[in-house]
Amino acid sequence: MNPTVPTEPPVENLVDALLSDLSNTVLLTQATIILAALVLAWFGVRQLLRRFPDESRAAWHINEWPRFLVPMLALMQILLVRPLLHHSQTVHLLNLAEPLLMSMFTIQLSFFFLRSIFNPGPGLRAVERVVSWLVWGAVALHIMGYLTPMIESLDAIGFDLGKQHISLYTALIGLLSVIITLITALSVGRLIENRLIAGSNLNPNIKLAVSKIIRSLLLVVAVLVALPLVGIDITVLSVFGGALGVGLGLGLQKIASNYFSGFTLLLEQSIRIGDMVTVDGRFGEVREIATRYTVIRGRDGTEYILPNESLITSPVINHTLADRENRIGIPVQVAYGADLNKVREIMLTAAAKHPRVISTQEPRVLLTGFGDNGINMELRIWMMDPEEGLGRLKSDINWAIWEAFQREGIEIPFPQRVVHMAQNSL
């Protein structure tokens, strides 16, 4: 008669079998083995990743590899150790660790491939990591046999609303469904933007407008998909649409106006990202055209946040719309006794020596009028870098003109008053 061979407990009884070992030192031994396997796997992955050059880390998403390599290497170590301990003691904890590590490796690897394909932004990456751990937590509870009792407990906490039962479980499932659908919509939108729109020859404004339209449409689709999953009838959107129409008529018209004004700016290309503009006396570079506002960065580092509607209804000076050549005038006043030909020569020389003044457009000196205290002159020059600002350019040329006037003895007048004293006759 063959000796009885100990059989392994089924998956749903792994925890019960584990609890039976709590009074033994066997549990402590196996827990130490699992902890050591995780630590060795973590150090091994860390040493492996250090061998990759810095230039390839971003391309291969090296920093995300530990999330699936650590459980995989730990699982391999446990698979090697478990047969050695199986003949001398029960290995219930190791039996439980194997499916947990395998599920963690599978889930984290799947989410890693999804992240590599869609390349989400920083915010979506944080949400995606949380969702991946929630999914693994649900799988882990199922493996340990606690998922069904926990669902029943969560479902018991709730209330009935008409024919629909709303519980903590349905609320959590609905929230998770909405998050997953929104992440999927935003990730697909980012994928289309990075792979299709970015590689096309479209104007940057058109690319941005198409990207925003695609994201908006995907978000609408995500909402339409998420609502039935939560258990909400899509027909309630008709009521919501009526409420939205009333809201737009009462107080949201400004938001809607700014929203559509943003698309108008992007599509008609009157203002583009990178243009140098002057709006309400504010000069700066257009850094961002968002859904509701436009960001203009001034020369002093401050950023002006202007509603899109104001850029449609207010006068806007775009210094780089047609071309980058801009003309500026520098006024100078000299005394009536000055040699105007010499003054003209000095002003042209000062303009010709400045590196920002372009030579394709000839500088000119105009006599603009005869003032109360002197003769008014103006130096007109052209430049091609309005993003560098005008203050330093004018200062450099004024400084050069002042030094030349000092050398040549040309006087810059100042206000004078002549007072005649009338004598009273006795």
| Helix-strand makeup class | alpha+beta
Strand arrangement across the biggest beta sheet: 6-5-4-3-7
Proportion of residues in helical segments: 55-70%
* Beta strands, count: 10
Number of domains: 3
Q: What percent of residues are in strands?
A: 5-15%
Supply the number of helical segments: 13
- Overall body shape: elongated
| Mean pLDDT score | 78
Structure description:
- A hairpin with a 2-residue loop joins strand 3 (276-279) and strand 4.
- With 426 residues, the protein is α+β, with helices and mostly antiparallel strands.
- It has helices at residues 14-19, 26-50, 54-57, 66-86, 92-118, 122-144, 147-156, 168-197, 204-230, 236-268, 308-313, 340-353, 391-408, and strands at 158-161, 164-167, 276-279, 282-289, 293-298, 303-307, 316-318, 326-334, 364-370, 375-383.
- It contains 13 helices and 10 strands.
- It folds into 3 domains: 11-224, no CATH class; 235-322, SH3 type barrels, CATH 2.30.30.60; 326-408, Alpha-Beta Plaits (2-Layer Sandwich).
- Mean pLDDT is 78; it is low at 1-10.
Relevant terms:
three-stranded antiparallel beta sheet; SH3 type barrels; alpha+beta; single chain; 10 strands; disordered N terminus; 14% strand; 57% helix; 13 helices; elongated
List the helices and strands and how they pair.
Elements: H1 14-19, H2 26-50, H3 54-57, H4 66-86, H5 92-118, H6 122-144, H7 147-156, E1 158-161, E2 164-167, H8 168-197, H9 204-230, H10 236-268, E3 276-279, E4 282-289, E5 293-298, E6 303-307, H11 308-313, E7 316-318, E8 326-334, H12 340-353, E9 364-370, E10 375-383, H13 391-408
Antiparallel strand pairs: 1-2, 3-4, 3-7, 4-5, 5-6, 8-10, 9-10
